[in-house]
Amino acid sequence: MARQVILCADDYGLAPGVSLAIRDLIAGRRINATSVMTLFSDRAEEAGRLRAAAQGTGVSIGLHVTLTGGFAPLVASPLSGDRLPPLGRLLGAALLRRLDVQAVTAEVEAQFAAFEAAYGRPPDHVDGHQHAHVLPLIRDVVLEISARRAPGALVRDCTQAPRARLGLDLKGRFISALSAGLASGAQARGLRANAGFAGAYDFAPGTDFAALLARCLAGLDAGGLMMVHPGHVDDVLKERDPVHAPREAEYAVLAGPAFPGLLEKAGVALA
User: Fold this and answer.
1) Would you give the end-to-end CA distance of the chain in angstroms?
2) Is the pLDDT of residue 167 over 80?
3) Domain range holding 179?
4) Distance of alpha carbon 176 from alpha carbon 158, whole angstroms
5) For labelling, which of 79, 91, 122, 167 has a CA lying 20 to 30 Å from the CA of 27?
6) CATH code of residue 154
7) Count of domains in the chain?
8) Could you tell me the pTM of the whole model?
9) Mean pLDDT of 186-190
10) Which of 6-15, 31-40, 169-178, 243-252 has the lowest mean pLDDT?
């Protein structure tokens, strides 16, 4: 019997081409979850399109808490300035416990509120752009607010599924180490967590995404989660994010004719 897993497309709302690609994959039953960024002014319009595409599919629509990337925050940045910091700065400040926790709390609350206003309900799951939700100090804020505003939601645990590891996979191992204890913290607050994580890679041009996808899915246990980043490149994406060609490559595999056979060979089904 096929193992049930979660295949989640991150960054819905980042750019029109990304959102369109994700909606197409939902309509085609190629993914069963997506995580939404709420920072941008078109979030209500994009929410309407996503709700229509997701109707009757059972897809999980979650909040992609965004605290990095150089974007304007809704209300406050976790570091000084009027823009969200790059990941390296946020990571350093979190590890040294030099974050403005009050600002983090205000921004996470605002992003939850923006999601609820756009979708008319709390998120089904919660995770973080560039995995910021697993960082020290930020983690506790996200878990506490999730438990209050989205009780019973699934919070993404980025603890790597060992059998889904891609070679030495230093990136995956580092994210996994940062995630230690997140699942137990979520469960203590009445929240759920996925059973293993996969999908972290360096977005290098020429990556064989079909092979990567097959390896990751085959290595997940039931209840595991793999993140993906499909999208169509447009001018908005070029302004907002450095990852371009890999999004097109991921979409081509996920939307392609070989995808159902890939799932079957991996022994998984979309939960």
Assistant:
1) 13
2) no
3) 3-270
4) 6
5) 122
6) 3.20.20.370
7) 1
8) 0.96
9) 96
10) 169-178
Q: What is the pLDDT of residues 102-119, one digit of tens each?
A: 999 999 999 999 999 999
Please say if the pLDDT value at position 153 is more than 90. Answer: yes
Which pLDDT belongs to residue 165? 82
Amino acid present at 158: C
At position 42, the amino acid (one-letter code) is D
Q: Which residues contact 45 (CB under 8 A, 6 or more apart)?
A: none
Are 133 and 127 in contact by the 8 Å Cβ rule? The answer is: yes
CB 23 within 8 A of CB 50: yes
Q: Classify strands 197-198 and 192-193 as parallel, antiparallel or unpaired.
A: unpaired
Please list, residue by residue across 220-257, b when 16 or more beta carbons sit within 10 angstroms of its beta carbon and e when fewer do: bbebbbbbbbbbbbeebbeebbeebebbebbbebbeee
Task: Please give the Cα distance from 82 to 51 (Å, whole number).
Answer: 31
Which secondary-structure segment (H or E) carries 24? Answer: helix 16-27
Paired with 65 in beta bridges are 128
Q: Name the residue with tokens 């990556």.
A: 207
In terms of DSSP H, where are the helices of 132-234?
Answer: 138-149, 170-178, 182-188, 209-219
Look-up of token digits 């939850």: 112
